[in-house]
């Protein structure tokens, strides 16, 4: 009876999706396939007993890679094109939410020496939890009724939009380098590319040593003889603490990925990329909805001759919050020809841990509170809470904690040097 009820629910969903006129037939079929896999257990937990640590043959230290044949180090896509006389395009994947904003920004670069491509990933309807029907079928036809199904949709969207065919038709375009747009350290690396070309790897995941700040990040494992991404959502509840251990799992996925274009085409056309499903529950106007998503790094287990490369932390520099912005705007980093370079004066291999209060959450408020960004090359940890303002040329060292009393403005004067200091004031 249960299977009959599930089939009836699915048929009702198919009929409802077929009536939607806001998306393509490819998007409709892709969405239905995702739902079928979800109902069939596509979001189940992993068999913990089968997890193994990748061997040195498939997880390589960056330092062990051979240097590129000749030429200077690559610092950005634009400098690569200028210095090597080649044409490496920049490709931006958007969703229906970000497309227009991206186009406005790209107008500034219309005369730049770089070929820029954009494409939109798929657009799927949110599912009502109670009736298991698409939200747009219930009157939610605006943006709230839809969602982008995670970056795992990238491979299919590259094919569906014609971009994959375009790149394959061009001479000597063999690999795509994928990186999150907020990762300032995610740039093309000739040393890695040289290794992939010589070893003919179809897929490479860049990983980096895990710190206590990264315990929830996905990691690279061996599972039944193949490399595989392991995310916390796949971990059985009783093993979550072990997953977060930096002793048991020493690396995490940076989401810097290198993938062979021909291999992408082969697997997408064969409908072979069945990445693990990430259920993402939401609430829209009081209605409980479900988004089914996938991650691009989870695709590694479907490709042949895959490897991981353990890269320096400098290749993972995401800016997701103002605490990250403080790091990259400080003297800890400098920007040279589009490449973010870490200061050699920093002795510790890890970055300072920065915790900012809600007063610093918005970028405009964050910038207003600093006459200039403090020097933090020798900083280990910083906590700021309350109405705190910084003068110019402030230096922070060691562990610093600054808390302003409720309703009171606390100003750090120009030129102040705070080392291993705790301030509760004024």
UniProtKB/TrEMBL annotation:
Gene3D superfamilies reported in the protein's UniProt record: Hexapeptide repeat proteins, Spore Coat Polysaccharide Biosynthesis Protein SpsA, Chain A
One of the Pfam families matching this protein, by short name: UDPGP
Main EC class the enzyme belongs to: transferase
Organism: Ananas comosus var. bracteatus
Catalysed reactions, semicolon-separated: alpha-D-glucose 1-phosphate + UTP + H(+) = UDP-alpha-D-glucose + diphosphate
Family label: Belongs to the UDPGP type 1 family.
Keywords noted in UniProt: Nucleotidyltransferase, Transferase
Positions contributing to substrate binding: 151
Protein's recorded name: UTP--glucose-1-phosphate uridylyltransferase
Superkingdom classification of source: Eukaryota
EC number in record: 2.7.7.9
GO MF entries: UTP:glucose-1-phosphate uridylyltransferase activity
InterPro entries (alphabetical): Nucleotide-diphossugar_trans (IPR029044), UDPGP_fam (IPR002618), UDPGP_trans (IPR016267)
């Amino acid at each position: 009876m249960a299977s009959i009820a599930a089939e009836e629910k699915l048929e009702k969903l198919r009929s409802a999706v077929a009536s939607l006129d806001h998306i393509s037939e490819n998007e409709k079929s892709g969405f239905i396939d995702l739902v079928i896999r979800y109902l069939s257990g596509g979001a189940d937990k992993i068999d913990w007993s089968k997890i193994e640590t990748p061997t040195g043959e498939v997880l390589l230290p960056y330092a062990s890679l051979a240097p590129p044949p000749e030429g200077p180090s690559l610092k950005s896509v634009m400098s690569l094109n200028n210095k090597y006389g080649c044409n490496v395009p920049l490709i931006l994947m958007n969703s229906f939410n970000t497309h227009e904003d991206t186009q406005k920004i790209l107008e500034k670069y219309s005369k730049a020496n770089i070929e820029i491509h954009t494409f939109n990933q798929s657009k799927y309807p949110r599912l009502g939890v109670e009736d298991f029907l698409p939200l747009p079928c219930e009157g939610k036809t605006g943006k709230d009724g839809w969602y982008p199904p995670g970056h795992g949709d990238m491979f299919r969207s590259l094919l569906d939009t014609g971009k994959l065919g375009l790149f394959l038709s061009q001479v000597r375009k063999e690999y795509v380098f994928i990186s999150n747009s907020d990762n300032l350290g995610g740039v093309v690396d000739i040393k890695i590319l040289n290794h992939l070309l010589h070893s003919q790897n179809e897929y490479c995941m860049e990983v980096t040593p895990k710190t206590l700040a990264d315990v929830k990040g996905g990691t690279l494992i061996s599972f039944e003889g193949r490399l595989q991404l392991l995310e916390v959502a796949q971990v059985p509840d009783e093993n979550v603490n072990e997953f977060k251990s930096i002793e048991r799992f020493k690396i995490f996925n940076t989401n810097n990925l290198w993938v062979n274009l021909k291999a992408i085409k082969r697997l997408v056309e064969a409908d072979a990329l069945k990445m693990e499903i990430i259920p993402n529950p939401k609430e829209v106007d009081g209605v409980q909805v479900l988004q089914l998503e996938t991650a691009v790094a989870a695709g590694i287990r479907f490709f042949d001759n895959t490897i991981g490369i353990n890269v320096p932390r400098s290749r993972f520099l995401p800016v997701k919050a103002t605490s990250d912005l403080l790091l990259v705007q400080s003297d800890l980093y400098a920007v040279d020809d589009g490449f973010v370079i870490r200061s050699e004066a920093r002795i510790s291999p890890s970055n300072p841990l920065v915790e900012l209060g809600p007063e610093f959450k918005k970028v405009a408020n964050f910038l207003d509170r600093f006459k200039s960004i403090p020097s933090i090359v020798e900083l280990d940890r910083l906590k700021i809470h309350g109405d705190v303002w910084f003068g110019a040329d402030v230096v922070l060292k060691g562990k610093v904690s600054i808390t302003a009393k409720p309703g009171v403005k606390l100003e750090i004067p120009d030129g102040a040097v705070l080392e291993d200091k705790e301030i509760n004031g004024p």
